[in-house]
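As promised in the previous annual report, we have extended the structural survey to additional targets. Below is the entry for Tripartite ATP-independent transporter DctP family solute receptor.
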Amino acid sequence: MRFKKLTLIATSLSIAGLGSLNLAQAATEIRVAYGNQPGEPVDVAVKEWAKDVAKASDGELTLKAFPASQLGGETEVMEQARFGSPLITITAYSNFVSSVPDLAVLDAPYLADDFDSKLKVFDSDWFAEQEKKVEEAGYHIVIPNTVYGVRHLLSREAVSTPADLSGVKVRVQNSPMYVAAIRAMGAVPTPMSLGDVYPALAQGLVDGVENPLPVLYGGKFYEVVKHLNLTAHMHTVAPFITGEAFWQQLSPEEQQILTETGQEMADNLRTLVENETEKSLQQLKDAGVQVHEVDTAPFRERAQEEIPAAFPQWSDGLYQRVSKIING
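The corresponding structure token record, generated without further manual editing, is:
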């Protein structure tokens, strides 16, 4: 009798323990991966997003930030997401060039003069069509419209026309769109990781680097090259994505929480980027960098001609169609 009673108590404790375990497992943790360093606008915005998600879901849904490419490079992390890993990552639209080619146009140079114009594209029927293709390719766009920054050129010599860039080696990320963009501007694109740029500039292996101002200042490239050319060649808007398989595992309520708090995060990130950009411009000036206003019209004309030719896989008239949505 005593044995039976002890067995019953043990069984009850085991069931209670399993109940606790199931409650503990009920909370879903999503890793958020990005290459930006701690303290940069993306990092600050993501960590605020995590607080909002935890609050909105009563702790049932949590985001854990992984800055500085801790989970791997963009392509590697995108593959992890596509295969169902519980993660969200910020990427570039041009990284879809092999799976959803037309989306890469959103990273094309001189497509928009300002962010308000560029953001109009995300409300278009064209973008809705692209989102469906993204899902068919195994991804889901959680937040389509995060403002990343305006890209300018920091170089050894002043630049005012495409001719000034003849023979000038400019570092770019290893992406077909960025290579094509810098070539269209008249320079020689030189792909390399951002971490290799400072010594490459110091050794004369490259003559310039393009990026948003906070990145140009944060990398201390101004110690080597002293001319900032306000080419504004890209108004970069980036998506936060996850895998479609993982997205479908979430409840409609969880999806709504991520989407709504994510949009608030995007608004916050834009404010952070704009404030940091203004601050970085002054810091570059204070560091002795000469700032040059640039007539972008000649660069724009070259881009409109050369970029569509560089991507024969695009739909006919794509650059013009998207440009009309943005600037119309």
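The first strand starts at residue 28 and ends at 33. Residues 1-25 have pLDDT under 50 and may be disordered. These points will be discussed at the next consortium meeting with the crystallography subgroup.
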